[in-house]
Amino acid sequence: MPEKNYDKYSRVLRQTAIEAGAKIMEIREQKFDVSYKEDSSPVTLADQAAEKIILRDLQKVAPEIPVVAEESASDGKIPQVTDQFWLVDPLDGTKEFIAGGTDFTVNIALIENGKPTFGIIYTPATQKLYTAKNPYKATIQDVDASLNQGVECPIHVRNGERDNLTALASKSHLDDKTKAFLEKINIKNHISAGSSLKFCVVAEGNADIYPRFGPTMEWDIAAGHAILNAAGGSVTNPDGSAFRYNKLNFRNDAFIAKGQF
Predict the structure, then answer these.
(1) What's the rounded Cα separation, in Å, for the pair 34 and 215?
(2) Biggest CA-to-CA distance, the chain
(3) What global pTM score does this model have?
(4) Which residues of the chain, if any, have pLDDT below 50?
């Protein structure tokens, strides 16, 4: 895909993510109901309102590219996709959002030939904006009180020392397989984060590895995968093979996200 399209997507969709994040925060200031899907995961008006904003702008910026979005998919609205499609998670970390925490994110990613090539993650509570501007450049920006984008700074994974690696574990999914994996590679340091923000922590060089052995959906991780790749890291299957998208029902098995070591 010509880089000019990535530039257009970056210019338009970063503002989209910020607008979706502002709507999420607006709803959090009000009383809102929590519903539950068939898989027992929670959903709120904020999830639905943010997705509506994102779908509106994707239709404007790239009407020819199909969109697989979490809340639409939950309603059975899943388009046929081939080698190019969007993956959208309008509010990843809904439990954190409901609990009054800060680790929840807006996620938009472009998949091309089974790989994420462009992605945006916005953290509404802390107003950090992460972008994989293309497959080789990742950046971070602060968003100010007027919701304007600040100075764009490149980010890159660190070159970790194998005897002093830091692992990033989910706040809510630290299972026995994950613990065993971390013991096997002799991890001494641990930090915790929620939602797709974990990929950004590795991409910024603040941790070295994020293993996940529990189930996730493709829209949960695609934007984070794009940002980590563009920052010099990787996401693979546990055996080191390539992690691909457009799988059956868009469901993921285990994966390992890491920097360079």
Answers:
(1) 22
(2) 49
(3) 0.94
(4) 1-2
